[in-house]
Amino acid sequence: MEAMHELNDVVDGAYIPQDVSSFIRNEEDASSFFTRFSVVIITQMGSIDPTVQCISSACFRANVPVLLVRANGLVGFLRVQAREVCILDAKDDAAAPDLRLHSPFKELEEFASKFNFNEIQDTTVLSHIPFVVILVQAIAQYRKQHGGQLPSSRPQKEEFKEVVKSIRPSCCPDAAENFEEALKGSNLRLCYASAREVPSSTRAVFCDAKSNPITVSGLQPESCDSSQLGRKGAFPEAIRYVKLSKASSTTLAESESNLVQGGSTIAGAARIANDCRVFWLHVAAIRDFMERFGCLPLQGSLPDMAADTESYVSLQKLYSSKARDDARIVAQCVNEIADRHAVDAEDFDEESVRLFCKNASSLRVYRTKSIVEEIESRGKGGFKAAAEMDGALDASQNGTAAPYYALLRAADQFRLEHGREAGSVAEMREADDSLICEYLSAVKEDIGIPGTALLWRDQATEMVRYAGSELHNVCAFMGGIAAQEVTKILTRQFMPLDNTLIVNFAQQTSVTFAA
Amino acid sequence: MVSAVEVPSTLGFTSAASLDAVYGDGTAARVHSSRILVVGAGGVGCELVKNLASTGFSHITLIDLDTIDVSNLNRQFLFRKHHVGKSKAVEAAATITAMVPSTEIEGIVGNIKDTKFGISFFKSFNIVCCALDNLEARRHVNRMCLAADVPMIESGSTGYVGQTSVVAKGFECYDCTTRPQPKSYAVCTIRSTPEKPVHCVVWAKFLYELIFGPDDDGNVLKDLDMDTGRAANEASASIPDTEKTGPKEDAKKGKEPVKAPQANGHENGHSEQSTENNGTVIAPKSKRVRYAEGEDPEEFAKRVCELVFVTDIEKQRKMTELWQERAPPLVYDVGGVVDNLSEEFKQPNLSDQTSWTKEKSAVVFRETLKHIASHRKEEVGNLTFDKDDKDALMFVCAASNLRSHAYGVPLQSPFAVKGIAGNIVHAIATTNAVVGGLIVQEALKVMANNGDVRDCLTTFVSKAPVGARVMKILYPEQLRKKNEKCFVCSKGHLQLILDLEKTKLRTVVNTVLQKRMCVLQPTVNLTAGEYHNTLYECGVGLEADEIEEYEQNLEKSLQELRVTDGSELVVSDLAQNLSCTVHVSHASGLYEDKAEWERFRLEGKIQEAEVDTNGVRSEDDSTEDVDDECLEVPVQEMEGSCAAAPNTSVAIADEANVTVTAEGEDRGGKKRSLDHAENGRLDGEPESKKMRGEERESMEAENR
């Protein structure tokens, strides 16, 4: 705590110098204790550890994200558990700009129709017509010829491309960037019928039952018994870290006066629940918009393009004012839903609606199975498929990371039953080795991994050799990854890792899968 | 290498037994006794030395020439606020000593390219770890390690991606693949001829730091800070960078002693102009654009507006040769815009997506200047652009729009400016941790194999799990065999194509040899038929008349020096243990549309069937196939073309994606199918900015 405070003196830290299993004996304890946090990080404990299971279920119920991170020799392991994280901005690099070329709004069509390419003599002017205008005209022309349909099949797309080429006046200089931009595949694609469809990753959010604008089940309080939350348990007091001043060494008694009042807040879980409610409220309103207008509210930004200042600025205004109009409609809907469901008006305002509209295509919901469910599901998760793809089920393959999923479990089982790490006593290494193999067979059977006893035999020996050692470089690596995931979850930006990562440092291989 | 010294049971924070258990017997002893050199004490460097010391490496030498900047503190965790301004290497070593007292760590303030760090210096280490942030130093260390036959662990971290690799004799070296040229803007584009919003935004960020930031001679707008008369004279040719550096440096040095903040007074555009008219070369007192303590904020704002948008633009307009193809910039009296705009305009919404008008930009610009000068006085001199700092963003938005207006570039909304301005690949602490962990893993593998790199890998760390079959975050690769045509590790030949009549030896030495080939102290020997001559030599131990002769040679054209089409130049650098044959071809009038120092092409030349006498030559023919393709691509093309191996995909970012090196760059040429556009283009920063505040995006305009 002292070192942490030195690294960053705004860190407000408190600690309990006790083994967590000494005061978290069951799920209720865990519920009362952990739900005050925004995220819980468990280090160097196995997923089958009873305490981990208590924490896992309690946090899953209260929707507090949990990270399980560990290093064992050259193996690193990370598991993210979250019932629901509402991602505000997935920062999907691949997202296409939202220009509504496929269904231009009135103002855009009017603006575009003001340009008559064949009347413009000045080639400088001609080569500075924004490509957006070119494409809006082209698509209008195409639609006229095709009964209002957008190009969808390959020949139709080719035909559309020809239309774009054909409206380029012959006097237009070859180097005109704007016409080149219009012909760029990524921009042509904005005009295809497929562009009207909301990408599947975005659609998932708006198809979620919680986003139904009528019921808005996302607004319902989740099944967590609030009487459980914040129950004052018999927990050891967390001692707030106070920096010792150089002048006077603080006595123990003094520092005890700085005790945190344990268990009195439910800030973490309650705040997360509220964030989710706000999220679903907005999503429901946007879904309503989508159902009425067939598209997401306009984002309102315009990418850089070859254009003269005036038309670029006019276009920009056009888009941003349309985006504001769309946001206004969504805001109305937010208000209506809020009224119907008695949502506190403090939770939303024009600004929040604008932000949600702008990021509409980047909204995501991240959900994982709970750790307990993963264990109980007996290999129904993504592990087997990932292991198979990775070649880990082929006994002749070496160096993949996947086998360590089973081996860490086997090693955990060993620790649970023997109270020490396998391989930690040099004299017993051989015996440990065969024990680990037995545990491994049990785990393999449990998670439905076929194959002979020889499968992953070498990795078992490695595991025993590692003997639970914590190597600094492996820890540094895993710490970096875990910190990154925590940042993603807390800022609700980017998609967190889904949901298990295993790194085999011996070969620098890695695998992720949804366990 | 195994030491007779008894190995303590705990090395650093790691138990010797677990090192031996995991990596094999004897590893702990070797780790304990080996000497390791770490070049660079930045973000990765801090992680690295911490990991090395904790793992038990007990003899560490750390080199860095840079000092600690405030912006480093968020991730270079070995430093504290009170370390700011002190040497990174020394402070990092002190912190490590306190943390792991059993480690002998020496911090050296120095440039690794300095000749005092010669081959024998490198030979004294068992492993060299590069935690550098620029291409030239890496290429140099690469050569030194090859010459000294010490395995080098290479690393890079930028944004969310990173990588590590190992270089050793016989394997691919840092020069075996061509690195894409850094994506940067020509200084003159930023300084004189912006064409896109991004150019104006970059300019505005420079301006912000020039006015409110720490002193930085690398700021491309530095000449605004100087005597305008002098600057105008220099700039008259509008030739940036190399050609201009000389006089600019002089002017700077000449002024340094008289630089006194209190001398600033109320300088305004007029007095600067009168200086210009008088033709005074050395200004009587410092003329800084930056805010001086005690200056009236109102006056200050007026002065800056006048200088930047009137005086400087007028000066630019005088460079008529620039404005033959395009319209000259417009002078706009920013200070004189009547402030009849409502209060709402003064407190703009930063997520606003409507473009500002020039009037609004003018008012905001003035108000922001005043605001910072009156309310954030104590921070002046330490402010660097931060897109989340409201004032900084307002300033950049307003200034870039005014600039855009002057040059006929579309004006932008604050939102868009934030996007452009914020498009920086930041150095991210978590990526550094990941990379730091990987480097030590490679170091331990080298230790486990007693110095052999056979188990080492090149590893790419991706931004997010990616993969067609299995989702992975790490993409390991076997170390590749060396490129038989590499001019550094394989005696490969190069082909230089230029206009012999018009190209001076100076261009060849400065640009081709020193800049492109990263030869530090080149010696150039000419063979043209029967004729042999040493054209150039530098370094210590030369006679006065030799120095004079070579200086004169620099100014001669290659033709005058009897270089003919088909001549061979043998370029060597004793310090780097480098010798390379360059075949010269004549191309009349090549690239005349480009700047004088860009009129050449340097290509890999396929070596004629000739048996390499170098014993380490690989017998593996398959590598030939791999590398052939590299050679089809000119080794160095100005536009950052990249000689990439097959199935390598190097994404080329568009201009808006231009970024600045964070902790360092990736080895773009090797990037495999990881979808990170920013990756391929982060190589290299100008030498002068080595290991400097990575946060400062200002660098993007450098290096051309």
UniProtKB/TrEMBL annotation, chain A:
Recorded GO MF terms: ubiquitin-like modifier activating enzyme activity
InterPro entries per the UniProt record, alphabetical: Ubiquitin-activating_enz (IPR035985)
SUPFAM superfamilies in the record: Activating enzymes of the ubiquitin-like proteins (SSF69572)
Taxonomy, superkingdom: Eukaryota
The protein's name in its UniProt record: NEDD8-activating enzyme E1 regulatory subunit
Species whose genome carries this gene: Chondrus crispus
From TrEMBL, chain B:
Domain Ubiquitin/SUMO-activating enzyme ubiquitin-like: start-end pairs: 496-587
Keyword Calcium: no
Transmembrane domains' residue ranges: none
Gene Ontology cellular component terms for the protein in this record: cytoplasm; SUMO activating enzyme complex
MF GO annotations: ATP binding; metal ion binding; SUMO activating enzyme activity
Residues bound to Zn(2+): C173, C176, C486, C489
The name this protein goes by in its record: SUMO-activating enzyme subunit
